[in-house]
Specification:
The chain is built from two helices and three strands, in the order βαβαβ. It has helices at 40-56, 79-85; strands spanning 7-13, 64-70, 96-98. The longest helix has 17 residues, at 40-56. The chain is flat, with a radius of gyration of 16 Å. The protein starts with 6 loop residues before the first strand and ends with a strand.
Length: 99
Amino acid sequence: MGKEIESWLLRADIDALPIEEESGVVYHSKVKGKMHACGHDFHTISLIGAAILLKENEDELKGRVRLIFQPEEEINSGCCKKMIEEKCARRCFVYNWFS
């Protein structure tokens, strides 16, 4: 989004943890042995909300905005390398990175 040279990157981590969900809440994990126990659901919806607001105001942006939903952040599996190899961040010269 945006049109200028300066870039901003917003990142959210989206992975679940290898924890058995025992909360009993209606919105519990449906995947056995996996749970969003550390706020990643909030991170994900926050970035989606930011994307909506930024897109609605795209003409007013003073720079380009990139959004990255990063998998496997908790287990350090080299996901950033994989994202680069898969060209998720192609042509992305970032001056300001927020996560």
